[in-house]
Structure formats: structure tokens, C-alpha cells
Amino acid sequence: MIIPKLHYISQGNSPKEHLENIQKACTSGAELVELCLRNVSDKKILETAAAAREITSHFQTRLILNGHYKIAKDIKADGVRLEKNDSCPTIVRMHLYTLWQMIGGTANTLQECKNHIKNEVDYICLTPFRNKEIKENIHPAMGLKGYKAILESLETETPMIGFGGITTTDVTEILKTGVTGIGVSEQITTNFDLIRTFNQLLSASSTKEQRHEF
């Protein structure tokens, strides 16, 4: 299963704004978007997710839901990303279309990564890269050192996606740690034209890797 290297994590002050931003991301060339709605009812999430599925299907963009795996199955999303307090991936897998729906796991420590690999997730989201706001119970920023330490300790082909305050200036150094892709929310929401810039930076890395294959 090929996981796109750039994930747009949706933002907005309302479900409507999330949909508007997903539309803009798809129009700007996003290959994968994650609908990340919080503090709204399951009914509203189902309604918004169904609308997001229509948008992404039109552009042939993959749609991931943040949690809510049952809704992901109902609307035939491309998968889910599970947060730390969500259900175990092995349980979630039983509720999805196992041949094509992907499962991402969220991790902040080496042990959490190992658990995800044991549970055979399709990719791991390493977060946060940096903390831009002070919040209660926030996990410590991993930074380049944290990413590098985890990647050097793991022997896995599971794709690692960096997320959390990442900007265009971070991409090149992040990829040097062994992380295979990035998730971006705020900077893209501010300027959707940056999707093209992110994709160029990620593609440059892919081309460089291919040149060194023997």
C-alpha cells in the first residue's frame, strides 16, 4: 500500500470551514486529506465526512478520518488515523474493508511505535514535531533529534509521517532523519498554494533516493 508523502490535516472553525478547506486543498493538488473534526456530534461528523468524501472522490484524493472508524467504513473513506485514546488497531481492522482501507497510528515515543508496528498499522504519525502553543497534557516536541532517535532504533518498512507545526523550511532536514512524509495543517490552511511547494520538496527527496539505489 503506497502512502502519499503529504497529508493535509483539515482545519476550520466549523464543519463548513473544514469542507471549504478540503475543497481548496484538493483543488491545489493534495493527494491525501485527513478530516479532523473535534467537539461535534457523531451525526455532524457523519454528515461532514460524507460531504468530504464527495469532494475528494471528484479529485481522486484520498480521504482519511481522524478516529471514527465506523463512519469511515460507512462513507467508504480510504482509512483512519487513530489517536492514542482510540481503539486498538487490531480491533479497528475488523470493522474496516481490510483489503483497501488503511490505518494510521499516532505516536510520540519509541514504545508506541513498536506497539503500532506489532499491530500492523499501515503508517505511523510521529507528533508533535514542535509545539507552537502551550496546552494541558500536550506531548513533548520530538524535533529532529527525536525523529532520528526513533528511526535509528526501528527496523521497519512502515512509513513514518512527521506532523505538528511543520513548515516548508523543515522538510529537507526532516526527511534526512528517515521520516518518509509529513502532515501539515496550519501553514497549508494559511496558503493552499504551498501544497505545490511541499510536494516539490518531497519529490526532490524521492528523486535523490532513487538515484542512489543499486
Structure, explained:
It is a single chain. The protein has 214 residues and is α/β, with parallel strands linked by helices. The protein has one domain (6-211): Aldolase class I (TIM Barrel, Alpha-Beta Barrel), CATH 3.20.20.70. 43% of the residues lie in helices and 16% in strands. It has helices at 15-27, 42-59, 69-74, 89-95, 110-118, 143-153, 171-176, 186-190, 194-211, and strands at 6-9, 32-35, 62-66, 79-82, 102-107, 123-126, 160-163, 181-184. An 8-stranded parallel beta barrel has the order 1-2-3-4-5-6-7-8, surrounded by 5 helices. Helix 1 (15-27) packs parallel to helix 2. The protein is globular, with a radius of gyration of 16 Å. Mean pLDDT is 92; it is low at 207-214.
Largest sheet: 8 strands, parallel, barrel
CATH topology annotation? TIM Barrel
The best one-word shape is: globular
Domain tally = 1
The radius of gyration over CA amounts to 16 Å
Going by CATH, what is the homologous superfamily?
Aldolase class I
| CATH architectural category | Alpha-Beta Barrel
What is the percent of helical residues?
Answer: 40-55%
Proportion of residues in β-strands: 15-25%
Which strands sit side by side, in order, in the main sheet?
A: 1-2-3-4-5-6-7-8
Q: Which residues sit in consecutive blocks of at least 5 with pLDDT less than 50?
A: 207-214
Number of helices, where a helix is a run of at least 4 consecutive DSSP H or I residues: 9
Find the count of extended strands (DSSP E, 2+ residues): 8
- CATH class (first level) name: Alpha Beta
